[in-house]
Amino acid sequence: MERAIDTQIEDLKKMILLMGGHVEKSLAQATLALLSRDQSLFEEVHVIEKLINEDHIKVDNACMNVLAKQGPVAKDLRLILSVIKINNDLERMGDQAVNISYSGKDYLGRKPIQSQLNDIQKMSEIAGRMVKGSLDCFVRGDVEQAKKILLMDDEIDGLKNKVFKDSVAHMKAHSDDVDAGLDLILIARNLERLGDHATNIAEDVIFAFTGKDIRHGGKFG
């Protein structure tokens, strides 16, 4: 016999997936605008951010409603607490995409540095896969796949370091490109932060379905 809270938790998962879709689209639009040098696409990022912010409030209210009316315990409580945390991470991802759009607009007003854009694109693609993958893991309760998501963060960190190093080297050799180089560093930094938030979601999946807190060096093995 299905419990009322089971239906409500499924509804929360659907809301989180919808919000995650908005985050994925926002990141994709910001990246496409940068790579295609289309300023108008950056405006779409701000439109999507409003949807993400609306989602954020809806999910928070829905979680509070379940906590107040159902008094969940054990795994149910962990799931709802994880939804609250995931909701906050997704909202912050929306903010990161907006930050990318701001830096991207500045970058498009300058002489382009093509050499770092391939790494920026790779970072965005990995971050997008992490967002989608971590949320899929949450909906399916797939702890093993969530562990793999954690390892993807190392790829983003490595690419961010490469963008930093290459941009600094370029700026030293081409002083006129300092502003453009700094824009790319900021974009890479925001992509790294976005990956960090996706990592947080993967950690929440492990906590929700195993009760193990692997933050700050905790073991998941």
Which helices and strands appear, and what pairs or packs with what?
Elements: H1 4-36, H2 39-70, H3 74-108, H4 117-140, H5 143-173, H6 178-210
Textual characterization of the structure:
With 221 residues, the protein is mainly alpha-helical. Helix content is 85%, strand content 0%. The longest helix has 35 residues, at 74-108. The model has no long low-confidence stretch (mean pLDDT 93).
Order of helices and strands: HHHHHH
In DSSP terms (H or I, runs of 4 or more residues), the helix count works out at 6
Ends apart, CA distance between termini: 34 Å
Largest sheet entry:
none
CA gyration radius, whole angstroms: 19 Å
Beta content comes to: under 5%
Content-based structural category: mainly alpha
Mean pLDDT: 93
Low-confidence stretches: none
What is the general shape?
Answer: elongated
The share of residues in helices is over 70%
Quick one: how many beta strands? 0
List keywords for this structure.
221 residues, single chain
Short overview:
85% of the residues lie in helices and 0% in strands.
